[in-house]
Amino acid sequence: MPFSPKEFAMQTWIRFQTGDGEVGFGRIEGDHVIEYDGPGHARPQPTGATLPREGLRLLSPCEPGKIVALWNNFHALARKLEKPVPAHPLFLIKPASSLAGPGDAILRPRSYSGKVVYEGELGIVIGRRCRNVAPDDAAAHIFGYTVVNDVTAGELIAQDPSFPQWCRAKGFDTFGCLGPVIVTELDWRAASVVTRLDGAQRQNYPLSDLIFSPEQQVSLISQDLTLMPGDVIACGTSVGAGSMKDGAVVEVTIEGIGSLVNHMRG
Amino acid sequence: MPFSPKEFAMQTWIRFQTGDGEVGFGRIEGDHVIEYDGPGHARPQPTGATLPREGLRLLSPCEPGKIVALWNNFHALARKLEKPVPAHPLFLIKPASSLAGPGDAILRPRSYSGKVVYEGELGIVIGRRCRNVAPDDAAAHIFGYTVVNDVTAGELIAQDPSFPQWCRAKGFDTFGCLGPVIVTELDWRAASVVTRLDGAQRQNYPLSDLIFSPEQQVSLISQDLTLMPGDVIACGTSVGAGSMKDGAVVEVTIEGIGSLVNHMRG
User: Fold this and answer.
1) What's the ipTM?
2) Residue B4 — very low, low, confident or very high, per pLDDT cuts 50/70/90?
3) Domains of chain B from N-terminus onward
4) Which ranges carry the Rv2993c-like N-terminal domain (chains A, B) (predicted)?
């Protein structure tokens, strides 16, 4: 791997709520959390407080203004779908209103009784404003990585024959699950995404199969639209995505980051 | 028209930049602006300052977290495209990063040499958080109306045969033009959208031809995703959208709101 200058060594960042209901940011050190006055990507200062990790409720580890969600970004899935490898990242936008954090319920939309699909994915958390970022500069604009469940109302996408409803199908409230933490360094080429539904493994695919690497995604997407600190690129899923029944527990794990657990509520 | 309770009588709100570079909000009264400490939808208080209207540079009149942009929302366009009237609003999301204000340049994306299309539209500015809003309550959640140019890199939409790139084609920086003002009351049923390209009229369609009214849009979309104060729903365009050459000046006018003027920069 080429050397990529980083301001931080490997760190793990969380956003949390205390038992008193206060929301904070922090960096994990062992079984404690060093509190900061803002999210990691924002050059925060330590507040001086240190909290025991136990008893903190984890929130989505960042608050993206937008989630740029890729489709068809793994060779294995492209082969299975018999789709060509795209020339540019194919994406849609999940709005900030779709955000959910670790442990949160995924809410079935009132208007929709069809299949709700889990898609375990790697999430890139942007650290610096990105506009027309050169490929070699992309790594320096990535704050870190998180786990994404890119929840999708699968049957809506093609419900209207003339307009594929990607944004609606993936944009419902609680359909953008992020967490549990952000790690600032991840050897993603060596990591896999594992999704378990009610404990049974449903996805297990290597990130080395990515069509566009995180750095390529940041560079190419930043030619289209400005990415802001805290924005997330969901790298797309690979084979094994499937539907969740109401009440199901879904767990997406990337070794080195952790497990994002959510449940479906009908 | 049914009585719709409003906290304000007809008001005109702007966001502006002074000659000193300060950004502010205000309500127009004749040739002056009453300054407020926040945008109109946020229950702002007057700062006590009154500024002459002349010399203020108008900015986009709100700062939406997202622009929900409808497709196929006019009967005349549906007939022309030979598409059925949709059962639910068909939409994509333009990100906050696409925002441009009155007078701003529309920037041709570096990566794209194809047609850039103007689409003159009515914009609904959300005034209160909307989630599962009943149709009869929708009007009370609308702060007001603005003019939208929903700029589109037309040839990108179908460039990839397997994934229509609506978000990319409409999500480029500067492709979400809003302005010049927000009016809190508009008899939209009596108004038309007129688009002029280098002075020549290209669109002139009545808003009474809408498939989903503003109230229906707010109610139905709020079943899908939470709309926040300052968010904008772009109601979709009708017949007459077309492409702009680099250097062209495009003016979208809705009587009762005003004219949104932008220019293409290659």
Assistant:
1) 0.95
2) very low
3) 62-265 (3.90.850.10)
4) 13-61
